[in-house]
Amino acid sequence: MTGVDTAYYLVHSMDSTESFEEQDRAAAQNFAEAARESGIRRIIYLGGLGHGAEKLSAHLRSRHEVGDILRSTSIPVVEFRASVVIGSGSLSFEMIRALVERLPVMIAPRWVSVAAQPIAIADLISYLLAALDLRLDGNKIFEIGGSDQVSYGGLMKEYAKQRGLKRLVISVPFLTPRLSSLWLGLVTPLYVRVGRKLIDSICHATIVEDQTALAFFIIRPRGFREAIAEALKSDGRHLLMDSRTIHVTASPEDAFTPIRRIGGTQGWYYANWLWQARGLLDRLFGGVGLRRGLRDPDSLIVGDMVDFWRVEAIEPNHRLRLAAEMKLPGQAWLEFEVTGDSTGSVIRQTASFDPKGLLGRAYWYSVFPLHQFVFGGMLQGIAAKSRIDS
Length: 390
Prior knowledge:
Helix content: 40-55%
CATH class of the largest domain: Alpha Beta
Distance between the termini: 55 Å
Number of helices: 12
Number of domains: 2
Shape: globular
Order of helices and strands: EHEHEEHEEEHEEHEHHHHEHHEEEEEH
Radius of gyration: 26 Å
CATH superfamily of the largest domain: NAD(P)-binding Rossmann-like Domain
Largest sheet: 6 strands, antiparallel
């Protein structure tokens, strides 16, 4: 920390196999001591909402204790206490996402009716950045949240609505936190130990009671609906992907030529009969099929049709991104990137899929063996064609 003016503390240990309270305590003490010795002038800490009048969970007690430890030095501390953070990587949001995406019928324990005041990750970052320049005399604690309150069940319903998923929620009030955490461990990627600790916290309302943050900052956080929309729009971390590369001795221009000519009368460079069969199947289900062809391979622009794909992005001799318009339980993309090197070019071909619910995941994994055959052959065909053209 030598030479550092402001230090952020964004650490917790809930995934620890040992006592996370002890690990949180030790980490905060080490950090506070190092900050004091190095002459840090300000610490900015992100903790959790929860009010002292309640019997707080171990997780929330630990969050508050960490703030106390950081304040035990003479260094001014700005502590933000937040509820659910809506955005990729937030444990609460990832739990909601996993439940809604994977379960057509959801068992709803008592905690789904508990009130929260979610905050969008962009608004949270705005607060963290604004705290750098905040005029401060001593320590300050700010409770922060979005512009509205909603239950966890309400968050699940809104997520499902924006994803176009129909979900049945059955209320089962007798599910204990322990049983809920075991259930979560079966249907979500969260560790059971993390789920238990998280649900213990969810049993408490996490709403903003102190509005001081609105007086100190010009930030006006958005509501949970807009926050979910932004999270879905910007998050590609959960895409299912098939990515592969091949090296060719051709120049980037020659390597890109067969890519911009893909589809239409040229075909897909491998197993064209399978592409035709896929087009016929798409037509049978009311889709566009392969009938649209390709307008002009020498002057592709964004918005052009390529059979049952549409050009979403193009950078001449470097990148082509196609978005699927066929009937699918989700959204699919096919992207090609060409990068030159000292001996030729590397072609990267990536098929990505954003599955819509359980049906979307079942579709991807059922056709995955076929993808190995088709996409592998297609990349080899593009490579062979680039060598001929060069």
